[in-house]
Amino acid sequence: MQIYEELVARGLIAQVTDEPEVRELINTGNAVFYIGFDPTADSLHVGHFMALCLMKRLQMAGNKPIALLGGGTAMVGDPSGRTDMRQMMTQETINHNVECFKKQMSRFIDFSDGKALMVNNADWLLDLNYVEVLREVGAHFSVNNMLRAECYKQRMEKGLSFLEFNYMIMQSYDFYALFQKYGCNLQFCGDAQWSYMLRGTQRIRR
After folding, report:
1. What's the half-sphere exposure (Cβ side, CA atoms, 13 Å) at 174?
2. What is d(CA 172, CA 43) in angstroms, rounded to the nearest whole number?
């Protein structure tokens, strides 16, 4: 049994955009993949541990993981799975949490000799020009499609702030930036982020 088939057998693959291509990338060790971790606290939790186990298993099969620390996306906050808006954190708190995550992740993933990368999306998101984002990125996003996403639908009755509404664009930009900078060709995420992942692949293609 190859690594992709093992992931399927363990119930770790729920949805996939192009299964034959994804299977080929993973089984041949040619996947440069990322998983995002928003530093909303100063310690990883059990959900993060599941993602790290997946990263480690794929790394052992010859693939290259990118641990994306959400120093930029944490400034907005992921609305998925939430009944209300997340508490806003200061830049100092986010930076502190990022440093805590770095130490903990290094216990699981081998970052030596270019075997894996650890990057912070604050490095590109915080320097973006608002009007340029609206023109260059926002033009590729359908508001109708965004509102149909499960992560937003569940918040429509209680209210979704414009700040949170932009989270999908930011996470999609992450995939694009990692593709441009590091040749990232694959993203793993939880079910709640599936719509974000789809928008990211569409952004790259366009």
Report:
1. 32
2. 25
Tokens of 118: 């650890």
- Rounded CA-CA distance 191/195 in Å is 9
How many CB atoms within 10 Å of residue 114? 7
What are the angstrom distances between the C-alpha of 145 and each of 8, 133, 167, 173?
28, 18, 14, 17
Tell me the pLDDT of the chain (206 aa) as tens digits.
899 999 999 999 989 988 999 999 999 999 999 999 989 889 998 888 989 999 999 999 999 999 999 999 888 876 665 555 667 888 999 999 999 999 999 999 999 999 999 999 999 999 988 888 888 878 777 777 777 776 676 666 667 777 777 777 888 889 889 999 999 999 998 877 777 777 767 777 77
pTM given for the model: 0.86
Secondary structure (DSSP) of the chain:
--HHHHHHHTT-----S-HHHHHHHHHTT--EEEEEE--SSSS--HHHHHHHHHHHHHHHTT-EEEEEE-TTGGGT---TT-SSPPPP--HHHHHHHHHHHHHHHTTTS--GGGS-EEEETHHHHTT--HHHHHHHTGGG--HHHHHHSHHHHTTTTT---HHHHTHHHHHHHHHHHHHHHH---EE---GGGHHHHHHHHHHHH-
Would you give the distance in Å from CA 194 to the centre of its chain?
A: 10
CA triple 49-97-40, angle to 5 deg: 70
